[in-house]
Amino acid sequence: MRKHISVFMLYTRSSVFRLLILFVLMAAAELPMFFFAADRCLDSASVTLEQMLDNSGMTSMQTSVSLSLERMFDNSGIAIVLAAVFVLMSIQLCGVGCEFGSKQGYTLRRLSVSEETVFAWQASFNALAYFVLWGMQLMLVLVMCSYGVEKLGALASNQTVFLAFYRNKFLHSLLPLDEWSRYLRNICMILALGTASAFFSYNQRRKKVGLSMIVMLPVTVLGFCGSTGSSGGDACLTLFFIAVTGWCVYRVYGKEKNDED
Fold first, then answer.
1. Partner of 203 for a Cys bridge, out of 44, 77, 113, 208, CB 3.0 to 4.6 A?
2. Cβ(177)–Cβ(68) under 8 Å?
3. Other residues' Cβ atoms within 10 Å of the Cβ of residue 209
4. Averaged in consecutive runs of 10 residues, what is the pLDDT profile of the chain (261 residues)?
5. How far apart are CA 195 and CA 249, in angstroms?
6. Secondary structure of the chain in the HEC alphabet?
7. Which of 157, 180, 176 shows the shortest CA–CA distance to 167?
């Protein structure tokens, strides 16, 4: 059991500090971006309100459609920051266990643990890291929601945050509320990312290319944000993620094992 813990700790020591830096940078970039976007939306709505009052005497309640929490998120660009952090994080996770500069593969072999076990521990750690990224982003979004509701003032209600998560594609994909197909898609996505990134390192130590992770990156970035009720798209992505996970596991525990035998 000590050898297994040593493998897991090797991946932890190689990644956790750099991942923490990425999370701090993500928070340092996203929070100001949202705060500035919220202020810009309020300034723009104030100008529009003054023009409407001058022209037709409309009340501020009639302008609430143009000033909303989801509009603040749309104008903030935090989804782009998350995509960049996701790609950088994936590069870090894929690089651990590879034999580029340092011979990490040699270190792993000295632990006298099978390659299949190494793959399993790396896939577990990587999936956990992606789950933490999701949780970190959701926590930041909730802080932004609190700030946005405070800025909306009288225009906000007890349904403001709920409606934002329901109507905004990015927010809804982070927390799908009662849409179980999106939860299933996200879980399968995290598992597929964990196995594909571990399979990349597994292949690199054998002088091969891990195409599964290369394909996963654009599919995840481009397919993450989906509108409410798009169960068909969720089903297609879920099947894709399951297929990627199954393929990686088969290559490690099935085909490669048989070839070695």
1. 208
2. no
3. 10
4. 71 87 96 92 63 50 60 92 96 83 58 80 94 96 93 83 92 92 96 95 85 94 89 94 96 69 50
5. 7
6. CHHHHHHHHHHHHHHHHHHHHHHHHHHHHHHHHHHHHHHHHHHHHHHHHHHHHHHHCCCHHHHCCCCCHHHHHHHHCHHHHHHHHHHHHHHHHHHCCCCCCCCHHHHHHHCCCCHHHHHHHHHHHHHHHHHHHHHHHHHHHHHHHHHHHHHHHHHCCCCHHHHHHHHCHHHHHHCCCCCHHHHHHHHHHHHHHHHHHHHHHHHHCCCCCCHHHHHHHHHHHHHCCCCCCCHHHHHHHHHHHHHHHHHHHHHHHHHHHHHHC
7. 176
Residue type, 51: Q
- How buried is residue 123: exposed, middle or buried, by Cβ count under 10 Å (0-12/13-18/19+)? buried
Whole-model pTM? 0.87
Q: What's the half-sphere exposure (Cβ side, CA atoms, 13 Å) at 71?
A: 15
Q: How many CB atoms lie within 10 A of CB 254?
A: 12
